[in-house]
Amino acid sequence: MTEPLLAIENLYVTLIDDRGKSKTILQGVSFEIYPNEVMGLVGESGSGKSMTALALMGLLPHRAQIHSGRIWFGGQNLLALPKREFSALRGSQIAMIFQNPRAALNPLMRVGNQVARVVRLHQGLGKRAAYGKGLDLLQQAGITDTSIRARAYPHQLSGGMAQRVLIAMMLACQPRLLIADEPTTGLDVTIQAQIFELIKAIQVELGTTLLLITHDLGVVSEVCQRVAVMQAGKIQEVAAVADLFAHPQHPYTQHLMSTLLRVDRPANYRE
Ligand SMILES: Nc1ncnc2c1ncn2[C@@H]1O[C@H](COP(=O)(O)OP(=O)(O)O)[C@@H](O)[C@H]1O
Ligand SMILES: [Mg+2]
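ok -> structure tokens follow
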């Protein structure tokens, strides 16, 4: 049997709110992801999907605290690693793309230089070679006229373009595990489809393992092999996508399907 690349075991995370009250936001989360797999994580807003991802990245907000649990990655428990080793892993082996790509970019730096910086860090190239490699990666991420676009600042790019820049940075890292947290929320529908196609193509080409967080069950059915369903800080069900759609076991999954699977109305249609 193949060993999982990632195994989250019984993860409890508490958060202190504005009034100093403590709330348990992850209540014993457990699931596994196997090498080369595309795993979906779905659930209503506020169910704890992003907090799970941030815990995996070692990027939980200060007010959040891991109470107990283990996160196994490549045979090591990340939560037992010294901080410095954990941050070395982040970026080199585990990378994440976010819902708001512009916020993840430095607003004061041309995007070509930002990509080049990641290339230098991870591939140890000189300045000029790294810049050239960065342009290649931008092109691989679906950006045309890269030498012009690379000179843009983040605010001069559309949301879809900014997400492609982050994807180029991720390509520079060549992570074993990519976490994509609602990577297309807020983009228009055509661009959403293009970004998902790009992520999927990269996943296949590089053999990256992907944890895809989304509220869009249509995307899950097209892209993912298995899916974990989350509600109120707990994983309610983990299943192969085909099984989940054919026979949702948990009443919450059935409810989620009835509320989220609205093919007639894309999620961002109201905006
Ligand atoms: N910065 C924050 N301050 C206080 N509470 C937060 C913060 N971020 C998230 N939470 C709370 O943590 C819980 C899980 O949130 P989150 O992981 O962001 O959900 P999801 O990504 O599934 O929408 C929610 O109850 C949310 O209200
Ligand atoms: Mg979220």
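The longest strand covers residues 22-33.
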